[in-house]
Amino acid sequence: MGPRVWIFRRGFNKLLYSDRRSKAVPPAIDVTMMHTIETESLTAFAARQQQAFECATTPARRKRAGHFGTPAAIAEFMARLPSRMPLGTVRILDPGAGVGTLSAAVCQRVQSLPGRRNLEIDVWENDEHLAPFLRRTLEQCRATLEAHGHQVAYTIHRRDFILDNASGAKSLFDGVGGKSGYDVAIMNPPYFKLRKDSDHARAMPGVVHGQPNMYALFMAVGCELLRDGGDLVAITPRSYFNGPYFRRFRRWFFDRMTARQIHVFESRTEAFQEASVLQENVVLWARKGAVDSDVIVTTSAGRDLTLGVESRTLPYAAVIDPTSGDRTVRVSANRMDEAIVALVDAFPLRFRDLGLKISTGPVVTFRATEHLLHERTSGESSAPLLMMHNIRPFATVFPKKPNGKPRHFRVCEASRPLLLPAKRYVLLKRFSAKEERRRLVAGVFEHGDSYSSSVALENHLNYVYKASGCTGSA
């Protein structure tokens, strides 16, 4: 790199540790320097900041913070989704910004657009270790767009996004700094579970049920900060699509937002492969206050979103299920899966019509370590502990020999809420690898399969039971 670029960086490095809510006052742009600046794209520049940050921190620390940097290709795809980028002022929200890759992708989209845009970008990032990398990215965005006739003003909020904007905060209803709502909220929020009595969960009781996850709170606050007609684009785990823990969030969110497009990554490893994340990720584009319309569903094998992307347009009710009021999101990976869903929907009866219920095994092993037994001991009461490896197609197998895992569960007064009566159940694995031939594995458990009058079912199993006479939680 030539000395001009080094001098330019030295100029804005002086701003790295300014006040907690700082607005950059950049130096004048040297036009002769822009040829050097433009040798790489804005997202490529951000990717280099991400690499530098990862070299300066440990994977364990990033995992504790829920930080998984957005790959450039995914960021560019997300930035292309909002269909409206009007002339004049456009307000952008990027919470949990990391090194600013998503803001860079938005700026990269605007860079080549005709007409002048005035971008006002608010980023939230409370990790002080990310601050210098984030500012470098945003300053690069400002310099590049101004060289192309646009304008960028950015503000870095080095505070907690949820606690700063949750229900009751002035900015939630009046806009940040007294301004109107955002036109676009684009986010790769941190994801990790929260205690339901945490400050973040208590700040948002309207969307929290059971054990909340931080990413859902980010989506909810982002929704509230949008103007009517504003777009939200988020890459998150797909766990909020169904299940009781996210039921309240789904109802709240889809009462306010209309899904426009959902992208599914068929591989659980490729989206964030550098961080070795094993997670089913999705990208959601939704519009605030819009009328229900068709939903575009796209899928890709990995994060290369230029080749092999399958696209389908589906009726809204086929994706956001209105039948139960739970707003379950149903996204089929391909047309064969669609046909299977249609076949199941055509069944004349539901579980409730047959007097059946389905629940999740109540034993969370890391919370019940004092009751886990590898061997039965004389004089102590115990029951079989069944996990996913015990379930085979149409059968339940209880190993007689040690296999390195706890096989029994202590029966005592403290453990009784976690035990079920030994009777007929259909047990289903809650998880299966996409590469498995059988995606749904179910086994039958009978009363005689247990040496005890009770049985312990681990949390990675679902069990189907007759509603009458069973004490299992529904």
Could you walk me through the main structural features you see in this protein, from its secondary elements to its overall organization?
This protein is an alpha/beta fold. It has two domains: 3-340, Vaccinia Virus protein VP39 (Rossmann fold), CATH 3.40.50; 357-466, Adenine-n6-DNA-methyltransferase Taqi, Chain A, domain 2 (Adenine-n6-DNA-methyltransferase TaqI, Chain A, domain 2). It contains 14 helices and 23 strands. The strands form five sheets. The protein has a ten-stranded mixed beta sheet, with helices on both faces. α11 (214-225) packs parallel to α12 (247-256).
Notable traits:
474 residues; alpha/beta; Rossmann fold; Adenine-n6-DNA-methyltransferase TaqI, Chain A, domain 2; 2 domains; ten-stranded mixed sheet; five-stranded mixed sheet; 14 helices; 23 strands; 26% helix; disordered C terminus
Distance between the termini: 63 Å
> For the record, what is the CATH homologous superfamily label of the largest domain?
Vaccinia Virus protein VP39
Overall morphology: elongated
Q: Which CATH C-level class of the largest domain is it?
A: Alpha Beta
What is the compact description of this entry?
This protein is an alpha/beta fold. Helix content is 26%, strand content 24%.
Task: Give a topology summary.
Elements (H helix, E strand, L loop, with lengths): L2 H11 L7 E3 L10 H4 L4 H15 L2 H6 L7 H9 L7 E8 L5 H11 L5 E8 L6 H17 L3 E7 L3 H5 L4 H5 L7 E6 L11 H5 L10 H12 E12 L9 H10 E9 L15 E8 L6 E6 L9 E5 L1 H4 E2 L6 E2 L5 H11 L10 E5 L11 E2 L8 E5 L4 E2 L2 E2 L11 E3 L9 E2 L3 E5 L12 E4 L8 E4 L3 E6 L8
